[in-house]
Amino acid sequence: MAGSKCIALIAHDQKKDAMAEFARRNQAALADWHVVATGTTGGRVLDACPDLKVTRLKSGPLGGDQQIGALIATGEIDMLIFFIDPLTPMPHDVDVKALTRLAVLYDIPMALNESTAERLIKTLNH
């Protein structure tokens, strides 16, 4: 991943369709990034955008959130887009909190909803 911009994409189950659609709408912009995603989210993004370079990690509850957290801590992630579902209880909620804490700690741009993600993509791609 060295030398290229790297973006992490994560979406809770109820937001995976929105993430796939976000990737489809922003495919040209995302093509300039190396995309890292949790397992199922990465699969959905690849289905929507088969030409994108996407590295799929484990699914979030099986350690994918921690894998992305480790990449943030080692400086390999430049931006995090995490479509959270605030209405559905998550059994791995502590992992989600740890991941967002790392993004804040390491001062990387982070979007937790589509509106912010759209603005980040447009701003940071220039």
Automatic annotation (TrEMBL):
Its EC number is 4.2.3.3. The active site is at D65 (proton donor/acceptor). Pfam families: MGS. InterPro entries: Methylgl_synth, Methylglyoxal_synth_AS, MGS-like_dom, MGS-like_dom_sf. It catalyses: dihydroxyacetone phosphate = methylglyoxal + phosphate. GO terms for cellular component: cytosol. SUPFAM superfamilies: Methylglyoxal synthase-like. It is an enzyme of class 4 (lyase). Substrate binds at H12, K16, T38, G39, T40, T41, S59, G60, H92. Keywords: Lyase. The gene is mgsA. Belongs to the methylglyoxal synthase family. NCBIfam families: MGSA, PRK05234.1. It comes from the Bacteria. GO terms for molecular function: methylglyoxal synthase activity. Transmembrane segments: none annotated. GO terms for biological process: methylglyoxal biosynthetic process. The keyword Ion transport does not apply. Catalyzes the formation of methylglyoxal from dihydroxyacetone phosphate. Residues 1-126 form the MGS-like domain. This is Methylglyoxal synthase.
